[in-house]
Amino acid sequence: xxxxxxxxxxxxxxxxxxxxxxxxxxxxxxxxxxxxxxxxxxxxxxxxxxxxxxxxxxxxxxxxxxxxxxxxxxxxxxxxxxxxxxxxxxxxxxxxxxxxxxxxxxxxxxxxxxx
Length: 115
Description:
A hairpin with a 4-residue loop joins β2 (43-54) and β3 (59-64). The protein has helices at residues 2-19, 32-37; strands at 28-29, 43-54, 59-64, 67-72, 90-97, 105-113. The chain has one domain: CATH 2.40.50.200. The protein has a 5-stranded mixed beta barrel with strand order 2-3-4-6-5. By secondary structure, it is of the alpha/beta class.
């Protein structure tokens, strides 16, 4: 019984450490104009630009050199970040959800302030 438990624990630990080893790209770097025109539904992207203003509880306007898009940023993504102003450069990583009717937006998975 103890050997079975030990073997199960070792297999679980090995599988957890194997999944933590991925070091490839975290999403396609893109631009606002690109995500609006050509990306398929629910595509994971990385955008770099500025958050211009807050327009709702978790809804923000984001702009890069090619245009603007709405960001849905959960409050947990702000934790540990320095203050972010309209002139701050940020990188957002998330899933773009285009809508035929309603508000198309990027659901933010992570947010970081760039130097």
